[in-house]
Amino acid sequence: MNLKLILILLAATPLISFAQKKENIDSLVIQFLRQQPNTPSPFIEITKKGKRGTVSRNYFYNAGDTITKDGLLITEYVFGSAESHATKYFLLCVDAPHQNAHHIIDDQTVEQAIKHLLQLTEGFKLSDAQKAYLINQLTLAYY
Q1: Would you kindly state where each structural domain of the chain is located, as residue ranges?
Q2: Which helix (H) or strand (E) holds 81?
Q3: Which of 28, 98, 108, 133 has CA 20 to 30 A from 74's CA?
Q4: Residue 5 — left, alpha, or beta (φ > 0 → left; ψ -120 to 50 → alpha)?
Q5: 30 in helix, strand or coil?
Q6: Predicted TM-score (pTM) of this structure
Q7: Half-sphere exposure of 136 (CA within 13 A, CB side)
C-alpha cells in the first residue's frame, strides 16, 4: 500500500465516523419522536442532484460542545419536532473506547431532569464547570 493511499484513508476516517454518528443521532431522534403522542411522524428525506445532496427533516437537533474526560466523549443534543418547538428533549451521548451509550432526558420538571442528568454523569468525575455546562444545555430543552 503506498503512502498516499494510507494518508487518504487516515484523513477520511474522522469524516466517516462523523457521518455514522449523525446517522445514529437521526435514528435515535426519529425512534423517540415516533413514540411521542401528538407529535407529527418524523421523517428524513435526502435528494441528490449530481454530486450534491440535500437533506430535509421535519425535526431538529442541535449539538452542543463535546466534553472530553478520561477517554470519554460526552456530547449533548437538544431536539424536537420542527412543527412544534414547544416540546424539546435532551439527548446525552457518551462515547467510550469500547462502548457507547445514549440517554434521553424527558422528565416532567427541570428539577427532575437536572437530578437525572447528575445521576447519569456521577461516575464521569466531571469538573464543576463541565457539570454547569451540561445543566445549562439541559435547561434549553425546558425553557
Answers
A1: 3-140
A2: strand 72-81
A3: 108
A4: alpha
A5: helix
A6: 0.77
A7: 8
Q: CA 84: distance to chain centroid?
A: 19
For residue 19, with 0-12 CB atoms within 10 Å meaning exposed, 13-18 middle and 19 or more buried, which class applies?
A: exposed
> What pLDDT digit, counting tens, does each position of 12-70 carry?
333 334 344 667 899 999 999 999 988 888 998 989 888 888 889 999 999 999 999 88
- Check: CB of residue 78 under 8 Å from CB of residue 62: yes
Integer Cα distance of 74 and 101 in angstroms: 10
Residue whose C-alpha is closest to residue 94's, from 55, 134, 53: 134
Grid cell in block for residue 82: 420542527
